[in-house]
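Can anyone check this?
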Amino acid sequence: MQGTVSEFDPETRSGVVLLDDGSQVRFPAEAFDAGGLRLLRLGQRLRLERAADGTVTRVTIPTMA
């Protein structure tokens, strides 16, 4: 699933992504760290990966194929 960064705290490395359907999904520092990112900016496009229980496990920047 993909969305746009609407909040990001560089100190806690957690944030919120606004999905295309308008819903918000929070991601923890662990998901940010798992994606290998160093910084996010508001409005940046992200891809989210979720576990079976719905927890966000990784956030990455989508690339063009």
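Reply from J.R.: I decoded it. The chain has a mean pLDDT of 94.
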